[in-house]
Amino acid sequence: MRAPAGLHLAYVSGAEETPGWDDVLGVATFSGSPRLTAAAGIPVAQVNTPILAASAHRYEVWSSGRPAESGQHGRVLFRRTPEMLFGCIALPEREFAAGAGAERTSSLHRATEEAYQEICATLEAEGYPHLLRVWNYLADINRDSDGTERYRQFNTARQHALHTCGRAVAGSVPAASALGARSESPLVVYFLAGQVAPLFVENPRQVSAYHYPSEYGTHSPVFSRAALLRQSESLTLFISGTASIVGHQSLHPGDTAAQTRETLTNIEALVGEANRRAGDAHFDLATLAYKVYVRRPADLPVIQAQLAPAVGSKAQIIYLQADICRQDLLVEIEATGICPLAAAA
Ligand code: 3EB
Questions:
Q1: Structure pTM?
Q2: Does 178 contact ligand 1 (Cβ within 6 A)?
Q3: Cα 65 to ligand 1 centroid, rounded to whole Å
Q4: Residues 187-196, buried b or exposed e (16+ Cβ, 10 A)?
């Protein structure tokens, strides 16, 4: 059965009836997801972050309510409707190991540049100019190599590639998440892009990530705190990976419960901003879908205990083990809300 027109997200268990795949745009699986027997041609981002036992949900499924069409551009696998394109790319870093001659960049840097260049080329070729939401997963995100933390190498390369492609590196930049995957995993990037520009939303409690001071790296992370997409049938709010950061500083080191509460306060602030900016939106914490990244699996009960009263029992939640891009952060939460609009008369 096909969903009504407009973008949809479901975190599904796999035990449900197999959906009709014709309107599915793309899927993300995680380590521990049962093998997916999706219809041929559906892009599947294979994210190497373990699903934590508490998760009833195993897959992330994006669908459109309209028949979608598959394609490939370079190494980007995509599927699209006239309004929206889902794409994914996975690049093993070993392919970017230094060849003959001294290279001044790391293999992660080169893989990141390649991924973003291929993404930009796909959007240009297929005619979906607006990058809305990007998910980035890289192995060993907190490890130093070539004299710098790998997350910082990633930030430098992402910014460089977007700039080279003629895209913004501050302001009109997509919502995003960037998390650690297991060692030896390829760089995996998946994304949604559209024909129409979204509204980019910043958090009044936080410095914009693209304006972080240089103590967090020579090149700031290029992402907006949230993006709000208006389609004829619905509004979609993409909330970026959000953590216990106020201003630009990490708060509550070592205190997972307090970090979770601070993160939820940040998400609430973004929901408030989105509702204020959109006018006709009424997003609230109880109707968002959440992806919760947990650094230490043993912290899961503490995080759940903070989340449950704030989001209620109906919210879709998936819990994954992942390293977070600052050593002192123990939890990060991304969220997506879809708010139907009254049908135009
Ligand atoms: C933060 O607020 C936490 O580099 O794309 C969150 C979301 C974070 C996206 C990214 C990083 C990214 O800075 C980390």
A1: 0.97
A2: yes
A3: 30
A4: bbbbbbbbee
